[in-house]
Amino acid sequence: MEKGKLLIFSAPSGSGKSTIVRWLMGEHPELNLYFSVSCTSRPPRGTEQHGVDYFFLSPEEFRQRIDNDEFLEYEEVYQDRFYGTLKEQVERQLDAGQNVVFDVDVKGGINIKQFYGQRALSLFIQPPSVAELRRRLEGRGTDTPEAIENRLAKAEYELGFAPQFDHIVVNDRLDEAEAETLRLVAEFLGV
């Protein structure tokens, strides 16, 4: 069986990355896409489920796994707020012939791309502007004003990493961003 490939999606919070990834996975089964389920030390949001959306770990459990070198990549995004990808989980999926999708922060995306090289396609989903990003984050209604300011400050920093990705997809109009993403992914996978 042919091993799977890796698709890395990174973006500032509120760029529409997760919406594009869900559409791609839901509407295009021919791509054989499966999520890499990441770990996080943040509490679940809304209807998120352990083992489906994330593996939810305490900060202490996360640090123990770091010490055991179990992560392909990890990041302490804010104090005691970790995100990371377990090596064993990814290898198991690739060996099964799955094309593994990563919905990760910018530094994590860069690290995974460096680790896997040409077996991975890295896509940066970019908002049309920081002002539009603010509008989207406020429209979600899921974050406090302070959290939104923190996300916007982080977004401005993350936008500087966009040139390190294989492709940048500007999400101004969702349908156009989805079409461009599908074209890039299908071309990479040879579908």
What does this entry look like structurally?
- The chain is an alpha/beta fold.
- Helix content is 43%, strand content 22%.
- A hairpin with a 2-residue loop joins β5 (71-78) and β6 (81-86).
- α5 packs antiparallel against α6 (145-159).
Structure keywords:
191 residues; alpha/beta; five-stranded parallel β-sheet; four-stranded mixed β-sheet; 9 strands; 43% helix; 22% strand; globular
Instruction: Give the overall silhouette.
Output: globular
Helix content: 40-55%
Radius of gyration: 16 Å
* Spatial arrangement of strands, main beta sheet: 2-7-1-8-9
Ends: how far apart? 17 Å
Largest sheet: 5 strands, parallel
Give, in order, the helices and strands.
Answer: EHEEEHEEHEHEHHEH
* H/I helix tally: 7
Going by helix content, strand content and strand pairing, the class is: alpha/beta
Poorly predicted tracts of residues:
none
Mean pLDDT: 92
Percentage of residues in strands: 15-25%
Number of strands: 9
